[in-house]
Amino acid sequence: MFSFFRKKTESGSPWETQRMPDVVPTAEPPAPVSVSTPATPHAPAPVQAPEPVQASAPATAPEPSSAPLDFLKRVFTGSPPPSAAPAVPQPAAPVPLTSAPVSTPAPAPSAEVPRDAWFQRLRKGLARTGSGIAQVFTGARIDDELYEELESALLMADAGVRATEHLLKDLKQRVKAAGSTEPAQVKALLADAIVDLLAPLERSLMVGEHQPTVIMVAGVNGAGKTTSIGKLTRHLAEAKCKVLLAAADTFRAAAREQLEVWADRNQVEIVSQEGGDPASVTFDSVRAGKARGCDVVIADTAGRLPTQLHLMEELRKIKRVITKAEATAPHEVLLVIDGNTGQNALEQVKSFDAALGLTGLIVTKLDGTAKGGVLAAIALWSRERASQAGAKPIPVYFIGVGEKLEDLQTFNAREFASALLN
Q1: From the centroid of its chain, how far is CA 330?
Q2: How large is the greatest C-alpha to C-alpha distance in the chain, in angstroms?
C-alpha cells in the first residue's frame, strides 16, 4: 500500500494522523471575494458578470470514503516510502483515519481499492510501450544482437539516447557480475536497472507543513492539467482536507467552467473571475485560503507552450504574486506532462523548471502510444540536475493511465518497471 500524500500535523511530525486544526483568521477575507452555494451538486456554479470574483462553497462537508485509507496508509504506519516494492503488490489491512490507537476498528478490506488492481491497470496501460522491449528476450542467446535489439526497443519507447546508453551500460555490468546465461535472467536484471534509475523520483506530496499548503499547477494545453487537479482534489477532500481551488486559467475557453464542475463534484470552494487577470485571481485565492483556514489551495494556471516566452513570463508573474500573498508560497510547483509526447515531455520539464523552479511532476496518459520510456530520460536528467545543484531530483508524485479517479496514483519505480516488462 502507498500513501497518496503525506500529511504533517501541528506538532511537526509528518507521521501523525491527527488533522491540523483550522487556523483562526487573522484578517478579513478580501473584499472582491464572495461565497455562494451551488444550486445543484453536479452542475457548475452560476457566475454573475457584475461581480469581479465569485466563489462557491459546499452546502455540506463531503463524507469521507474508504479510498483515502489506501493512499494514506504508509503515512499513518510511520514507515518511510519504500525504494522497491514487489512486482505485484498485495493489498494489506486498512488503517483508520484517526489518531486513536491501532486497536481502533478499521473498515472491511473489501471497501478499499487494492493496489494490485492499480498494478494491473498500469500494466495494461504500458503494454504498448513494453511489448517491444519484452520481445527482445524471447530468444535463447545472450549476444551482441540481443543488446542491439534492446537498444532499438528502448529508443522506440522514447527512453532517449543518453538514458538508453546508461541502461545498457548498467545492464552489461549486472549481467557480467551475475554470470547470467539466460535471456529471462537478463530481463530481470534490466528491471533492476530501471528501478535504480527511477527510484530517486519516488517521493510523497507533503500536505500540512504550511497552512495553507499552496500548490501551483502548470502545463501545456491538453496535458490533463485540470483533470489531474480535480482527481487530486477528490483525494484531498476525502481525507478531510479543506481545499480551495483557484481558477487562474482564464486563457483557455471553458477552463474555468471545467474546474467549477470539479469543485461541485468534490464539494470544495472555488475562486473564479470571468475574463480576469490570472495573477489577480491567484492572489485573491491565497488570501481567501488563509482567511478561511483552508488546508490546501490549488491554483490551476493557463496552459503555456515553453516556446511562448511572453506567456511563460505570465507564469512567473503568477508565482511572484503568490509569494506576495503568502511569503513562503508557493510550496509546490507541479508540472503536468502528457506521457504520449515522448522526448518533448523532457523538453517541457527543462523549460518549465528554468522558468518556475519545479518541485514535482504528474505524468498522465501513459496508456496511450508507446512513449512511456520517457520517464527514464526524465530520471537521468533530473538526477544530473540535482547533482550539479546539490539538491534532490524532481519527483514524480503521480502517474495516470486513464480518466477514472482511481487511474491517478502515486509513482513507484518497482511497479513501473515490472508493469513495463511483463
Answers
A1: 16
A2: 75
Cα–Cα distance, 210 to 293 (Å, whole number):
11
Give the DSSP letter string of 60-127.
SPPPP-SHHHHHHHHHHHTPPPPS---SSPPP-----SSSS-TTS----GGGS--HHHHHHHHHHHTH
Task: Using the structure block, give the residue that is written with the C-alpha cell 470552494.
Answer: 269
CB 16 within 8 A of CB 285: no
Q: Which residues contact 31 (CB under 8 A, 6 or more apart)?
A: none
Q: Which amino acid is at 346?
A: L
Mean pLDDT (the chain) is 77
Residue 344, helix vs strand vs coil: helix
Mean of pLDDT values over 119-143: 86
**DSSP per residue, 139-163:** SS--SHHHHHHHHHHHHHTT--HHH
φ, ψ at 173 (rounded to 5°): -65, -40
Per-residue pLDDT of 330-376, as tens digits, reads 999 999 999 888 889 999 999 999 999 999 999 999 887 767 899 99
pLDDT greater than 90 at residue 270: yes
Angle 183-198/161-178 helices, nearest 10 degrees? 130
Mean pLDDT across the stretch 97-126? 58
- Residues 6 or more apart in contact with residue 270 via CB below 8 angstroms: 45, 55, 56, 244, 245, 246, 247, 259, 260, 263
The span from the CA of 257 to the CA of 321, in Å, is 23
Torsion of CA 136, 140, 145, 146, to 10 degrees: 40
- Residue listed under C-alpha cell 534490466: 190
C-alpha to C-alpha distance for 197 and 129, rounded to whole angstroms:
18
84, burial (CB in 10 Å: exposed 0-12, middle 13-18, buried 19+): middle
pTM of the model: 0.74
Helix spans in 138-297 (H)? 144-156, 161-178, 183-198, 225-238, 255-266, 278-291
- pLDDT of 200 strictly over 60: yes
**Are the C-beta atoms of 68 and 90 separated by less than 8 Å?**
no
Angle at 338 between CA 191 and CA 254, to 5 degrees: 155
The predicted pLDDT at position 370 comes to: 67
The DSSP output letter for 273 is: -
